[in-house]
Every structure is written in structure tokens, then in C-alpha cells.
Amino acid sequence: MFVGVMRLDFHLPGARSLKDKRMTVRSFRDRVRARFDVSIAEVEHQDLHQRATFGVALVSSDARVCDEVLGAVASLAGSVRDALLVERRTEVMAVGELRDDLSLAPSLRPRSGGDPEES
pLDDT band at 97, cuts 50/70/90? Predict the structure, then answer.
């Protein structure tokens, strides 16, 4: 399993108030949600009217899918009207299978019926 995470930092030079910013932020967030199966949220600078930072995340069984989807979201971010994409950071992480973690959590190990020590 792979988890893809991306941070998008925007500068909104024309925003003169938080209301101006909210219109641009909401429009971008709604477009991403409508086009892609990802989670997206404004994660920083909520109180600044000319900055916006989004976090985008998805889970897939294929790292290439994570990379492609996040790349498509970044492409859309580059075309946002009234905002300039100033920074993009992406990371795709492999997450191990649950059975690899069972040695760390004895209570999660499957029980077998034949071992007298497990009663």
C-alpha cells in the first residue's frame, strides 16, 4: 500500500480580504474534490488573506497511481485563476502490510486452536 501526500503553497496577490481568499480557496478545493478521489484541506495560513496552503492525500496499491494523481492535482493548481502556485512538495510512502507489524502487537496475532500455551 502507498500513501501519497502533497503540499501546495499559493500566493493570492489580488485578495484584499479573507472573503476574497475564501472564494478562491473554496473554488480550488471543490474543483479538486470533483475531479479526483483525494482528500484536500487548507492546512495553514487560514488567517492570512494572501496565502493559502493545502494538504492533499490519497492511498493506492500502486505508487505510480499516487504520483500520477498528485501530478494532475498540481497541474490543476498551476492553473488557478487569482492565485500563484509558489511551492509544491510531494512524497509517496510505502506502508508495510499488517502482518509485518504483528510481531510488535501480540494481541493482534491470530490464535491457533492447538497450542496449549495460548489458552
Answer: low
The counts of H helices and E strands in the chain are 3, 4
Copy the grid coordinates of residue 92: 509517496
Contact 74, 90 (CB under 8 A): yes
- For residues 34 and 76, is the Cβ–Cβ distance under 8 A? no
For the chain, the structural domain boundaries read: 2-109
d(CA 85, CA 105): 43
Q: Is 51 within 8 Å of 11 (Cβ atoms)?
A: yes
Domain 2-109's class? alpha beta
**Residue 72's closest CA among 95, 61, 88?**
88
pTM: 0.75
